[in-house]
Every structure is written in structure tokens, then in C-alpha cells.
User: Which sequence fits this backbone?
């Protein structure tokens, strides 16, 4: 029951934050329209059949039944009946508005989103953001055997300096993706990728031929890979009750720095070492717990209903994290660069990154849910809100009818012509592009649904391990000083 309540709480947090971001954008349009004297017919929070509505000062305010953002109906702008519902006003009787007024009102939505992005960035600077190993290093922690990187001669411990002639400062992560190893690999378009790296103080360059994995089922097309992972210290997320790890004294947030005397630079390397272990054969794990170093002897056992000997640990995929306080301006600018890089990749005919790789509402909600599940998840969600608000602002500025950029483009055309465009023609354009946008949202939602946990297969969801009580005396943990 506690797990279901926690899940419900996370979903509520996700919906509230997501809706706040959309409503703030629409509120920008609303306030600008009131300032410039435009007629505001409706201001709605959520869509669908209204649960409540009331007309105040000539504006119909409503609360819909579908918690998915909101809208503001401005009949003097280009018609938007496909999204906002049919207008009850006779547009021929409404006073005309200038092209400048329309541009200001259209710009106000993206401006509100950028303002909220900067506010969230200031909050991130104040409270801090957890940053994982993979966002703080370019050192290779794992090389896939017989993979492209291994064939080119890259090894564990190599520090990558440049990918495809682009300097890199981290392995992965959102925000200024142009500085990440992973992005420059998937974004590359040539048959080989030059990679400059440092090994034992010597600078070298190799050319790696990436592979393009086959698409799995109905999921998104896979992107380029060379078979490497970042250096990452494995961190314990959970210890199963009565497991060998619990008996040995391992705790959540412990870092596993070595196994049987072998230093560990990746979770996969540790997992492979554990899988090769035999039931009843003790493993010697070196643990970092704060400033203390522990040596623990753990003897794997086979859980109930399983055939593989295990130690009973659920790992934190992020590894160790530190709390950073990024400059708000650099955070917003980095998010802008990320969006520009993404759009340039999508529109490049030679790029493997296509429109299907973008995320719709379902994908965004899934990301928020995953962030809130993590320790300090609210800090991560606050940081992601910076990225999302910037994306919302820039995408809406694209010169596509229905979007804010389309309204600006139509207003500019109106100013050049010296008279408004034909209302019937505008209605056809807006309705047509609205249907195309809805179709694209359905298209991208199809792929987003494939990424949901219940669609990915049971291999991605950790099984609840149950261990029988040990027959012998449990192992003990000793610090570096030998004290228990």
C-alpha cells in the first residue's frame, strides 16, 4: 500500500509541475492580450468537458476534465477553433488590432516560458542540482568486447578529449549537449568518427566506425554507438532483506570501489564479476562509505525461485552524485544550445536523429516521473523544468501556423500587405496545420508509449528477490582500521 501511495504522490507532483509550465505559457498570452486591448473570449485550465466555468469581465474561465495544460481563446488572432473550440463571437464585429499587437501577444507566451525557465534556473543555483559521474567525466569505464571502440584500440581508463573534432567535457547529460561524448557520437554523419584521447599522459587519435543497432519491435530507431560507457563508481540503491549483502552490512548509498582487489570503473564490470561468482564462494568487496573505507566478505546465495547466485543488491544507475550550483544564465544558455543542436540534427538529411526521437507529453511525463523517483528528485525535476521551458519557448517560435511563430509570421505578412489576410483562408490554414500537429503528437505518443516500463518487458523491471535465512553465521564488515 505504501508503494502505491508513493506512486500516486509522484504522479500528482508530475501533473502539477507539467501543468504549471503549460499554464504559465498561456498566461503570458492572456496578460499581453489584456495589455494590448485584445478581446479575450476564454481562458481555460485543462481541456475536455468543463468541470467548472464562469464568465467574469467578459472572459469565460473554465476548468476542464483532462489535466493537460490550458489555452486562451483570442478571436482577433488567427482562428484556433480546432484547439480552443468554436467561437461564439461574430469576428466581423470585433474591433481590428494591429499586426504589432498580434506579434506582441504571440511573443508573450515564449517570453513567459523563458522567464519561468530563468526563475527555475535561479532556484537550481540556490538549492543545487545532483550531478552524476557520467556528467563529470570523459573517462571510459567499460568497453564492449569486439565492439567498434575495442576494435579501434580504445581501453578502460582512456580519457576522451574530442569526438568528431568537437571538444568534450562530459560523457552524457542534457543541457549544452554539444560538449558530451554520447551526443557527438549519435550526431555524427560520416562513416568513421575521429576520437582524440589521453592514455598515460600521451595524446592519441583513433578513427572508430560506429554501428547502428537494429530497431527493437515498434520502438524508435536506434542511434549510433561505439560500445563504450563512462567511468562510474557503482552505488547501492537498495539492499534486499535477508540477502548476503544485508548480512554483510552493506547499506544504501555505499560505493563499491573494488571487487576481489580489482578496481571497478563501471556497474557492468561489477555485474559481470558478480555473475561469474559461485554460490558459497566469498567475494571481497571494498566499500566507500563517506570518508570511511570498509572491507566486506559477501557470500552469494541463490534466491527463492531463481537459479543464479546473487548478493541481493539493487544498484543506482547514476552512480555517485555531487551537488552543484550552476550559474543560472549558463544553465539557460546551455538549454538553448541543446534545443538548437537537437533541431539542427532533426532537420539534417544525413543525421540518424529524426522527428520520432523527440518526446511528446507522455515522454515528458515519464521523464519527470523517473526524476521524482530518484533521491533528491525534486532538485532534478526543477533542473529539467529549465530545459523544458526553454524547449517550449523555442519550439513555439517555429514559423508554423498554429504555433506562436506561425502567428508572428502571419502578422508580418499582414503588415507587409497592409491589410488582414482573408479569414476563411486563415481558417483553412490553421485547421490544416492543427490536424497535422495533432497527428504528429499521436505519432510521437506511439513511440513514447513503447518506452513505458510495462511495455519494455520484465527484464527492465527489477524482480523482487527473496532469500531464505542463511544456514551459517552471517559475515561481518570491518573498517580499514579493523574495527567492526
Assistant:
Amino acid at each position: 500500500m505504501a508503494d502505491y501511495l508513493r506512486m500516486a504522490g509522484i504522479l500528482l507532483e508530475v501533473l502539477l509541475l507539467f501543468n504549471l509550465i503549460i499554464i504559465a505559457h498561456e498566461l503570458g498570452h492572456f496578460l499581453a492580450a489584456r495589455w494590448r486591448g485584445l478581446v479575450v473570449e476564454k481562458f481555460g485550465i485543462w481541456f475536455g468537458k468543463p468541470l467548472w466555468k464562469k464568465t467574469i469581465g467578459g472572459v469565460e474561465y473554465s476548468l476542464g476534465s483532462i489535466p493537460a495544460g490550458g489555452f486562451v481563446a483570442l478571436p482577433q488572432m488567427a482562428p484556433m477553433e480546432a484547439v480552443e473550440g468554436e467561437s461564439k463571437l461574430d469576428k466581423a464585429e470585433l474591433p481590428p488590432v494591429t499586426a504589432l499587437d498580434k506579434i506582441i501577444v504571440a511573443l508573450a507566451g515564449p517570453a513567459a516560458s523563458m522567464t519561468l525557465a530563468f526563475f527555475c534556473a535561479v532556484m537550481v543555483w540556490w538549492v543545487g542540482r545532483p550531478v552524476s559521474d557520467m556528467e563529470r567525466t570523459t573517462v571510459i569505464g567499460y568497453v564492449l568486447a569486439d565492439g567498434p571502440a575495442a576494435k579501434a584500440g580504445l581501453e578502460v581508463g582512456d580519457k576522451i578529449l574530442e569526438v568528431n573534432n568537437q571538444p568534450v567535457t562530459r560523457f552524457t547529460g542534457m543541457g549544452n549537449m554539444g560538449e558530451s561524448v554520447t551526443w557527438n557520437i549519435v550526431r555524427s554523419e560520416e562513416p568513421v568518427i575521429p576520437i582524440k584521447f589521453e592514455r598515460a599522459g600521451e595524446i592519441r587519435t583513433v578513427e572508430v566506425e560506429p554501428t547502428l543497432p537494429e530497431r527493437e519491435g515498434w520502438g524508435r530507431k536506434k542511434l549510433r554507438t561505439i560500445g563504450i560507457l563512462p567511468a562510474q563508481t557503482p552505488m547501492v540503491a537498495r539492499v534486499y532483506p535477508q540477502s548476503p549483502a544485508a548480512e554483510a552490512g552493506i547499506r544504501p548509498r555505499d560505493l563499491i570501489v573494488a571487487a576481489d582487489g580489482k578496481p571497478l570503473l563501471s556497474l557492468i564490470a561489477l555485474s559481470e564479476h558478480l555473475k561469474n561468482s559461485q554460490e558459497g564462494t566469498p567475494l571481497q568487496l571494498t566499500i566507500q562509505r563517506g570518508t570511511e573505507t570498509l572491507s566486506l566478505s559477501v557470500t552469494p546465495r541463490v534466491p527463492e525461485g531463481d537459479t543464479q547466485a546473487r548478493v541481493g543488491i539493487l544498484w543506482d544507475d547514476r552512480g555517485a552524485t555531487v551537488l552543484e550550483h550552476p550559474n543560472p544564465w549558463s544553465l539557460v544558455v546551455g538549454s538553448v544550445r541543446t534545443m538548437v543542436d537537437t533541431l539542427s540534427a532533426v532537420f539534417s538529411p544525413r543525421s540518424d536523429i529524426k522527428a520520432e526521437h523527440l518526446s511528446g507529453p507522455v515522454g515528458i511525463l515519464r521523464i519527470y516521473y523517473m526524476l521524482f523517483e530518484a533521491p533528491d528528485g525534486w532538485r532534478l525535476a526543477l533542473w529539467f523544468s529549465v530545459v523544458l521551458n526553454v524547449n517550449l519557448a523555442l519550439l513555439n517560435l517555429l514559423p508554423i501556423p498554429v504555433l506562436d511563430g506561425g502567428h508572428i509570421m502571419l502578422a508580418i505578412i499582414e503588415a507587409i500587405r497592409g491589410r488582414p489576410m482573408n479569414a476563411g483562408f486563415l481558417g483553412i490554414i490553421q485547421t490544416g496545420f492543427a490536424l497535422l500537429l495533432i497527428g504528429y503528437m499521436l505519432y510521437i505518443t506511439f513511440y513514447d508509449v513503447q518506452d513505458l516500463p510495462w511495455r519494455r518487458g520484465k527484464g527492465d523491471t527489477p524482480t523482487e528477490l527473496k532469500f531464505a535465512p542463511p544456514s551459517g553465521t552471517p559475515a561481518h564488515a570491518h573498517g580499514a582500521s579493523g574495527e567492526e
Notes: The chain has 13 helices and 19 strands. Residues 235-319+475-479 form a domain with the Pdz3 Domain fold (CATH 2.30.42.10).
